[in-house]
Amino acid sequence: MKLKILSIILFYPLFCVSQSDDKHEDLIIITGDTIPKPYINLNEVILFQPLSFDTYDAAKKYAILRSRTYKVYPYAKLAADRLKTLNDRLKLIEKNKQKRKYLRRLEKFTYEEFEKDLKKLSRSQGKILIKLIHRQTGQTTHNLIKELRNSFKARIYQTTASFFKLSLKIEYDPKSNYEDYLIEDILLRAFSSGKLDQQPTALDYDLDELFKYWKKKKDKEVENKKSLMRYRIIG
């Protein structure tokens, strides 16, 4: 059942892929004369704050979170792509009855399509996937089900998810959730290095501002812990 909850938002689309063979010229031609460009095209370089952790356990947790994020991000990206295609297709279907029939058939097909892959996801990976779907679409999984199916279906899936200690209402919020901030950091570094394919997101964040915010907050927490330390003289 957990599998069906995760697969509900990975809709199967009908789409066409177009390719372009446009090439950037490195020469300027003026009245028959060929003149080299006075500049060189360079790829954009993004500088990230250096990663540092206070403890080995913290670094280990980051590495585990990175591995989980790498695994589920492609599903969230696919969900966003298919959601857009689905919405475009639903606009062409006028009758609500036909829309419901189409969505039921689509749900069954999607469940079968991703059954093997999603069965391998752990609860922690499922939780990250739900967050990333919110990041990519701007809507929680619960709201997507409610909008595309109905409120009753959304309640059923939410209740079932709770048995696995998951919530389809989870939001992605790096400004208030430290783990989400780390996920954002992981994603942007992966996009920059080419380890993951970047997709425009419905939620946009400034990583530098997030870094400053969480650094200040973590430094303050350390200071508070030090101020709470008490020493006792024995003897």
Walk me through this protein's architecture.
This protein is about 60% helix and about 5% strand. It is mainly alpha-helical. A two-stranded antiparallel sheet has the order 1-2. A hairpin with a 2-residue loop joins strand 1 (about 25-30) and strand 2. Helix 2 crosses helix 4 (about 125-135), helix 5 packs antiparallel against helix 6 and helix 7 (about 180-195) packs across helix 8. The N and C termini lie far apart (about 65 Å). The relative contact order is 0.14. Residues about 10-25 have low confidence and may be disordered.
List keywords for this structure.
235 residues; mainly alpha; 8 helices; 2 strands
Strand content: under 5%
Mean pLDDT: 79
The low-confidence runs, each spanning 5 or more residues with pLDDT under 50, are: 11-25
* Strand adjacency order, main sheet: 1-2
What is the assembly state of the chains in this entry?
Answer: single chain
What gross morphology would you assign?
A: elongated
Q: What is the element string, with H for helices and E for strands?
A: HEEHHHHHHH
- Spatial separation of the terminal alpha carbons: 63 Å
- Please tell me how large the radius of gyration is: 24 Å
Biggest sheet overview: 2 strands, antiparallel
Q: What's the number of helices? A: 8
Number of strands: 2
SS class: mainly alpha
